[in-house]
Amino acid sequence: MIGLEDALDLDDPDADDFLDGVQGGIVKGHGRDFTAHVLVRLGPDAAAARRWLADLAAERVTSAAAARRATWSWRGSDGPGEPFAMLLLTASGYRGLGVPEELLPVPGGPFADPRDAEYFRFGLKEQAGRPRTFADPPVEQWEPAYRERIDAMVLLADDDEQRLCDALDAVLASAAGVVDVLVTERGRVLRKKFPRGELVIEHFGFQDGVSQPLVVRQDAEREVRERGNAHWDPAAALSLALVREPGGGYGSFMVFRKLEQDVAAFHRALGDLATATGLPLDAVGAMAVGRFADGTPAVPTTTPDPGADPNDFHYDQDPAGSRCPFHAHIRKTNPRGDVPRVIGAPAEFERSGRVLRRGITYGERPDLVEGGVPDRPATGVGLLFMCFQANLDQFAIQQEGADSADFVSAGVGVDAVIGQGAAPPPQTWPSDGAVAFTMANFVRMLGGEYFFAPSTTFLHGLADTDTDTDTDDASDRGAAS
Ligand code: HEM
Fold first, then answer.
1. Which of 12, 17, 225, 391: CA 20 to 30 A from 441?
2. Which residue has the higher pLDDT, 478 or 72?
3. 418 lines ligand 1 (CB under 6 A)
4. CB 62 within 8 A of CB 84
5. How far is the CA of 254 from the centre of ligand 1 (A)?
6. Would you say 181 and 43 are in contact if contact means Cβ atoms under 8 Å apart?
7. Whose CA is nearest to atom 40 of ligand 1?
8. What is the distance in A from the centroid of ligand 1 to the CA of 423?
C-alpha cells in the first residue's frame, strides 16, 4: 500500500498500480515539446458531458504508469514519444457533472487549513476574501475567454506537432454540441544554445525548469548523485502534490495562469540597472532571477557531475542577500531557509510551500531566429504557468510573497521577475547594497483558473453513471468519485 507521507519508491511492488490510478504529468512532467490546452464550458446536458469526458479518458488520457512505460520505449528510439493527454476540472466543472459539493476534492498536506478549500471552490476569479491576496489585474482586464466560467481543460501534448494538431482537431470535433470551447492555448518549448549545451529557456532568456521538488525517490536520488545535497534536499513526499479524493483515488490541484512577458521592457530595465549599479548585464540578470541565464545560481555552488544543472545551494550561504537579493525570483518563490531564519517559522512549513512546476512557453520569437526581426517582443509571448500541489495555498503563498514588497521582511520589494503592483517601491541591488531601482510589472496575468486533476478511476467512472446527475443517491455519487 503506497502512502503519501514519503516519496514514491518505484521499486515498491504496489508502485505500478498506484501510478495507474494517477494521471501523468503530476509526479513527473510529460516532457513533450508541443501542447494544446482546450478550455471548455460544459453544456446543460450533464450526462453527455460525462460521456464526453469518459470517452476522452478512455481514448487519450495518459496515466502516470503509462507515461512511465512511454518514457522507457521512447528512450530506445529516435522518433517522437507517444502522445500525452490529461483532463482537469474546475469546481464549477465538478458541479456541472452533478458531483455534490461535499464530494469536491479538498486540500491536503500537513499544514492545510480548512479555509484553503475556498481557493478551489470559488475559483481564481473570486480572489477577494480568500486566505491570501495577490495583485492580479481585475477580471475585466483578462482576455475574454478567461472572463467566462471555465469548467474543464483538455491538455494534449506531443513531440510531433502535426500529430498534436490532428488530435486537437479530433477533440474539438467531439466537443461539438456537448461543451463550448472557450479558447485553445498552444504551448511550445523554447530552447537556446549556451556554452554548456542547449537548454530549455523562458522568454526572458533564462534556463527554466531546473529546480523542482522530486516526489519519486529514485528521481531525488539521481539529483543528489548528480547535483549534490550538501545544502539543499530536493526530495519531497507525495503529499506535497497528491490528495486522496473523496471517492478513494488520488489527484492534484493545478494552477493555470497565462502570463504575458514584456521581454523588451525586461531587458531595457536590466540595461538601466547595469548602468545604475556599474555591474555587467549578466550579473544584474542573475540578481533579478537568482540564476544566470545558463542556470548557474547567483549563490555559488558545485555539482558532482560537471554537466548537471546546479541546484545545491541554500540562502544560509547568503543571509544578507549580497549575491542573491531577497527580491530575486527564485528566492521569493523558494526561500530556502529565509522563512525559518528571518520569520522564525519551521523549516518544514517553508518546504511544504513548494510546488511542482509544469509550465510551458507560448508565442513565436522571430527575433531569435537567424535573419528574423531585430526587436524583442513586448506582447504576444509568455508562459502558460502550471503547477501541481496538494493545497492551492502552496501556490498562493508564493504569488503573495512575489507581489508583496514586505516578504520575506519589510521593504525588500516585489519579485523582480513576476512581481506585480500599482506602484511597487524600488528594491535595493543587491539587498545589502546602496542602489535603489524598481524592477516590476514585466509579467501580466491575462487569465487563469484553479483546476483539479482527478484520478483515472474517477474519469473512467464517469462512463458508468446514469443521466440522473442531480440525484442524492449514494451509489450514484460513489460511481462518480
Ligand atoms: C512568466 C513568468 C515566470 C518566469 C519568466 C519564470 C522564470 C523562472 C526561472 C528563469 C526560474 C529559474 C530556473 C528554475 O529553477 O527552474 C524559475 C524558478 C522558479 N519559479 Fe518561476 N517564472 C515565472 C513564473 C512563476 C510563478 C507564477 C511562480 C509561482 C508563483 C514561479 C515559481 C518558481 C519557483 C518555485 C521556482 C524554483 C525556485 C527554486 O526552487 O529555487 N514562477 N522561474
1. 391
2. 72
3. yes
4. yes
5. 16
6. no
7. 211
8. 22
Residue nearest to atom 22 of ligand 1 (CA): 418
Q: What angle do CA 247, 108, 397 make, to 5 degrees?
A: 140
Instruction: Give me the amino acid identity at 403.
Output: D
- The answer, yes or no, to whether any atom of ligand 1 lies below 6 A from the CB of 236, is no
Dihedral over Cα of 105, 447, 416, 208: its sign:
positive
Rounded distance from Cα 8 to ligand 1 centre (Å): 24
In terms of Cα–Cα distance, which of 361, 336, 321 is closest to 443? Answer: 361
Please report the pLDDT score of residue 472 as a whole number. 37
The pTM of the full predicted model, rounded to 2 decimals, is 0.96
| pLDDT, tens digit (0-9, with 9 covering 90-100), for 74-92 | 777 777 889 999 999 999 9
pLDDT at 306: 96
Residue with the nearest Cα to atom 31 of ligand 1? 333
Residue 42: left if φ>0, alpha if ψ -120 to 50, beta else—which one? beta
**Residue 222: which H helix or E strand, with range?**
helix 217-227
Q: Is the CB of 333 under 6 A from ligand 1?
A: yes
Out of 20-29, 69-78, 120-129, pick the least confident: 69-78
* Cβ contact 251:22 at 8 Å: yes
- Per-residue burial over 275-309, b if 16 or more Cβ lie within 10 Å, else e, is eebebeeebbbbbbbbbbbbbbbbbebeeeeeebb
Ligand 1 site, residue 291, Cβ cutoff 6 A: yes
